[in-house]
Amino acid sequence: MAGRQGPRLEIREDDGAPDTSNNTYGTYLSLPNSPTNTRRPTMSRRPSTGDGPDERSPLLTGSRTSRIRIHSAHGSPRVPILSRNQSYADSVKSTRHHSRANSWGSRLMNAFSDRQNNDRPDLADSHGSLFFPDDRVWYDQFTSTDWVHDTIADSYRQKALRSRKDFWGRVYLLFDGAQGWILSALVGFVVAVLAYVINVSEATVFDFKDGYCRRGWFISEKKCCPHGPCTDWRDWGEVLQGWPFGERWTEYAVYIAAVITLACLSCLLTLTTKTVVPSAYRLSTLDENLAADPATPPDSDAGTETSPVRSSPIVPKEHPAASPPMIYYSAAGSGVAEVRVILSGFVLHGFLGLKTLIIKSMGLILSVASGLSLGKEGPYVHIATCVGNIACRLFSKYDRNDAKRREVLSAAAAAGVAVAFGAPLGGVLFGLEEVAYFFPAKTLFRTFFCCITAALTLKFLNPYGTHKIVMFQVRYLVDWEYFEILSFIIVGVLGGAAGALFIKASRRWAKTFRKIPMIKKYPMLEVMLVALVTGLVSYWNVFTKLPVAKLLYNLAAPCDDRDQNLEDLGLCPTEKGDIPPALANLLAAFLIKGLLTIITFGIVSPFSPPPPPLPPFFSC
Fold first, then answer.
1. For residue 274, what are the CA distances in angstroms to 14, 267, 277, 309, 537?
2. Residue 561 confidence (pLDDT)
3. Alpha-carbon separation of residue 151 from 60, 146, 155, 162, 431 (angstroms)
4. 228-269: pLDDT as tens digits
């Protein structure tokens, strides 16, 4: 041969059988070329069982990877009963373990180098040789987001944008960078509007249990009579003229009926978001169901199992009873725990959808207006995250990339806290410390911008009629004294002890009462019983009958005759004889609210545990 011939590299494939042929399989490599450009055959340690992906499959490929699907945990096969609402078809999820030979990393670097040495059409060829950037990665139900895949896909998208040097390419690059800020402003605005609608509607429906305003059925009692009792507000005893039990007892009966009706309506709406998890997925619970059975891992031994008491093996049954499927409701509870799980990369289809948003908002209005011992702060986080998830559909940058989508969801969750407590900085800290697992610097500033937008919009809408974004604002005209530090310490100790007692009592109640087969089978029955008890015991105490925001304001605000928001609840005694009745009412309200909160926590309804009233000896 005239030219210079490179060294010969001979690779034999030996399967253990004698070689009967004289043909030798060889591959020739030239010195100037890189060894990585030629695929090196690898020896398999185990025989191939099929054409599916194995441990040598690359992470990013084209049409081959598009058929890879993530199965559920513990090696369970795909459950065929899942519908598209629960699990999308043709899910793209690559295997974790892959060979280093000719991996996606080497092809990625080769694609970048080819782009620098060739013209722009070659970039599309190298780009398409890895995977299809226009194909969205669909994840199955109860799987995890592939952060590496989504990050690399977004890197390719950004590189393709930066490669355009024309005018419109630069304009689109600027618009691409502004999409995150546009979504943050839009999410903050929509979350504030929803919070305004919920606050105003809840206050109006809450007063329906006592009566209505003659000037309009949609007007609350405070707006109907801003300066105290007036003739425009009519109680139900007056409307029904005392029929059939007299004016006082008729109002009591209407109050109980209204509490049960509103609570049941909220429960009915929540039941429409029922989701059945097949028994193949070993999960305990996805909501505040403290009575859920713990998930038991599958037995490692396929044959016999050993009794914890006896040492002799126990022969398994021929037909073991299948574990019942788990049922959860996406609109029940606060939703904060599930939002944290989703932001960490877990996939829950339908939990942040439009249906959940509408039902959660309507159910929250009805449940809070019913007078149950629950609040709306936790559901605001879930509602805001639903808004962020829906808003991501406006831009393919966030709609087709789950990792980028979670940046918007983090900002939306923080905006929910901002409108719930009127604290934009508190929302940012909540998202940074409690909710988000991936929080880069750009997400921090966008989250702050989203919270500021939500707070300013809520202040402009003025839901409370005080031009404030908080439920109540307290101004102290007298400074505290040093000897009061001891009382602050005692209040802190009592608060921690009460919180621990509340957790233990709620768990005990869930594991006893909710284990009853009838209660477990029919959640509506539990809601009716809780609403009945709430209506029976809350009507006669002036503190437990008030809404949570108004109750907290009257407990925390100083006595001031010029304050028009204070009500005559006996908290500002003028004589010594007025102090014992006020203490007795506060003690009774503390016990009633505490017990009602324990039995209310965990029902099938949108809720967030409200703060109980202060102990009576620290409220006056």
1. 57, 11, 10, 40, 31
2. 77
3. 12, 9, 6, 17, 21
4. 778 889 999 889 988 888 888 999 999 999 999 999 999 999
CA-CA distance, 111 to 115, in Å (whole number)? 6
The CB-side HSE value for 59 (13 A sphere, CA atoms) comes to 20
Q: 207-233 burial string, b = 16+ CB within 10 Å, else e?
A: bbbbbbbeeeeebbbebbeeeeeeeeb
- Expressed in angstroms, the distance from the first to the final Cα of the chain is 106
- Distance, in Å, from the CA atom of 85 to the CA atom of 275, rounded to the nearest integer, reads 10
Cβ distance 7 to 32 under 8 Å? no
For CA atoms 82, 84, 90, 93, the dihedral sign is negative
More confident residue, 44 or 176: 176
Task: Give pLDDT tens digits for 401-459.
Answer: 998 999 999 999 999 999 998 889 999 999 888 888 778 888 899 999 999 999 999 99
Three-class SS of residue 565? coil
Report the mean per-residue pLDDT for the chain.
Answer: 76
Count of residues in the chain = 620
Burial class (CB in 10 A: 0-12, 13-18, 19+), 369: buried
Cβ partners under 8 Å of residue 327, min gap 6: 274, 275, 276, 277
Q: What pLDDT, on a 0 to 100 scale, did the predictor assign at position 231? A: 84
pTM of the model: 0.73
**CA neighbours closer than 13 Å in the CB half-sphere of residue 240:** 18
What span, in angstroms and rounded, lies between the C-alpha atoms of 342 and 447? 17
SS3 of 563, please? coil
Q: Tokens standing for 608?
A: 């967030």
Question: How far apart are the C-alpha atoms of 346 and 344, rounded to whole Å?
Answer: 6
The whole-number pLDDT of residue 294 equals: 59
DSSP state of 281: S
Residue 364: count other Cβ atoms within 10 Å of its Cβ. 29
- Determine the distance from the C-alpha atom of residue 309 to the mean position of all C-alpha atoms in its chain, rounded to a whole number: 42
How crowded is residue 433: how many other Cβ atoms within 10 Å of its Cβ? 9
Closest CA relative to residue 6, chosen from 26, 22, 36: 26
* Residue 584 buriedness (CB in 10 A; 0-12 / 13-18 / 19+): exposed
Nearest to 382 by CA among 407, 353, 404: 353
| The token pair that represents 77 in the structure block | 């096969």
| Extended strands (E) in 453-503 | none
Number of H helices, E strands in the chain: 19, 8
Give the list of residues 6+ apart from residue 554 with CB closer than 8 angstroms, or none: 546, 566, 567, 569, 571
Identity of the amino acid at 384: A
Q: Tell me whether the omega of the peptide bond preceding residue 244 falls within 30 degrees of 0, making it cis.
A: yes
Where is average pLDDT lowest: 197-201, 306-310, 534-538? Answer: 306-310
